[in-house]
Amino acid sequence: MRDIAREVGMEAASLYNHISSKQLLLKELLLEIAQLFTEGMKVINSQDLPSFEKLAALIRLHVDITVSHTDAISLLPSEWVHLEEPSLQAFIKLKDAYEKEFKAIITLAMKEGQLKELDPELTLFSILSTLRWLYSWYSKYSSKDIDRLKEGLIVSLLHGIKT
Amino acid sequence: MRDIAREVGMEAASLYNHISSKQLLLKELLLEIAQLFTEGMKVINSQDLPSFEKLAALIRLHVDITVSHTDAISLLPSEWVHLEEPSLQAFIKLKDAYEKEFKAIITLAMKEGQLKELDPELTLFSILSTLRWLYSWYSKYSSKDIDRLKEGLIVSLLHGIKT
DNA sequence: GTCTATACGCTGATAGAC
DNA sequence: GTCTATCAGCGTATAGAC
Predict the structure, then answer these.
(1) What is the distance between the alpha carbons of residues B111 and B113, in angstroms, rounded to a whole number?
(2) Nearest residue, CA→C1' of C11
(3) Is A106 left (phi over 0), alpha (psi -120 to 50) or beta?
(4) What is the mean pLDDT of residues A76-84?
(5) What is the DSSP string of A13-44?
(6) Which class does domain B22-159 fall in?
(7) What is d(CA A22, CA A40) in angstroms, rounded to the nearest whole number?
(8) pLDDT tens digit string along A23-71?
(9) Distance from residue B9's CA to nucleotide D11's C1', rounded to whole Å
(10) Nearest to A129 among B133, B159, B162 (CB)
(11) Nearest CB partner across the interface for A152, out of B115, B119, B157
């Protein structure tokens, strides 16, 4: 709290005029971002696209959210474990649903012959771990190169890096 | 410290007959693992292999270390930031050197035509983030399937998942 | 809304008996 | 080498003046 206070130029005690607790702050930040992914998935899934294109759209979604929510996104991979009930269960529910839908698209893309028939779980994990850690690294790209980053990730993660 | 003590069946105070401080414990765990990666890289780089095969060997190295050091490996992605000087600098040096050598192999594989000519930084990041988060996920594979996991990752990360 | 002062629980660590 | 007792510091949070 003292770090946050210093960052916004006040004493730690003064923060409590704006938020009621640290725990609630964490909850709001995490659930807001989780909602963004949930809604993005919903939009993509409602479109009539080949599964492979849906995967590309998901990659673009992750890049967009990472760029537009630079600060809060860094909480997503690890800090959610510190949520207390019932927020913890709410978060896990969103997370599980997201991963389930992501995996379903991967599985479908495999069945339709757009992807190799590999372990869908491993494929999901491999793609998601890269997208989740994007925030720790993407700053090397200037804001004008975001489209290049998106297409680079689509090549890396979907088309493959082998010649 | 109290959690660790409970896990090994003693009081927190008794731990200090075995370790001198929490900070030193963190340092020893992290530097031990960092050394494993550094030595593994050295061995692989000393072999006369095509760059692409070196990348496959690196993937197998990550899986092997993850499996054989299940507990400590989870510290590697995030906890190193809590190291104090001079351990922090020592760790960063190993980490930077490892990533540099990893990237050099990727760049070479691209020049030799074994990989597409993509952004080497993005390619490195994409592969490493998957390998680093393996620990949080690989337990779904039974110990007998470790070879299948290795080859699955080589396909996913190097050969590509597209048909 | 911000400040100072302060309460209070938790955590890393030490002292000293056994 | 383990225990109990204890400490000092930190971190979240509240009270109350301004």
Answers:
(1) 5
(2) B1
(3) alpha
(4) 94
(5) HHHTTT-S-HHHHHHHHHHHHHHHHHHHHHHH
(6) mainly alpha
(7) 28
(8) 999 999 999 999 999 999 999 999 999 999 999 999 999 999 999 999 8
(9) 28
(10) B133
(11) B119
Q: What is the band of B142 on the pLDDT scale with cuts at 50, 70, 90?
A: confident
Chain A residues whose CB is inside 8 A of the B160 CB are 159-162
Task: List chain D nucleotides near protein: any atom < 7 Å from a Cβ.
Answer: 1-6, 11-16
**Alpha-carbon radius of gyration of chain B:** 18
Calpha distance B54→B76 (Å, rounded): 22
pLDDT at B15: 97
Tell me, letter by letter, the H, E, C secondary structure of chain B: CHHHHHHHCCCHHHHCCCCCCHHHHHHHHHHHHHHHHHHHHHHHHHCCCCHHHHHHHHHHHHHHHHHHCHHHHCCCCCHHHHCCCCHHHHHHHHHHHHHHHHHHHHHHHHHCCCECCCCHHHHHHHHHHHHHCHHHCHHHCCHHHHHHHHHHHHHHHHHCCEC
Per-residue confidence at B158, pLDDT binned at 50, 70, 90? Answer: very high
CB A23 within 8 A of CB A63: no
Work out the minimum CA distance from B17 to partner chain A, whole angstroms.
Answer: 31
For A93-124, how does the pLDDT look when each residue is reduced to its tens digit (9 = 90+)? Answer: 999 999 999 999 999 999 999 999 999 999 99
Amino acid code (one letter) for A64: D
- pLDDT at position B140 over 90: no
Q: What is the mean pLDDT of chain A?
A: 96
Does B139 score more than 90 pLDDT?
A: no
* Residue ranges per structural domain of chain B: 22-159
Q: CB contact, 8 Å: B140 with chain A? A: yes
pTM summary value = 0.94
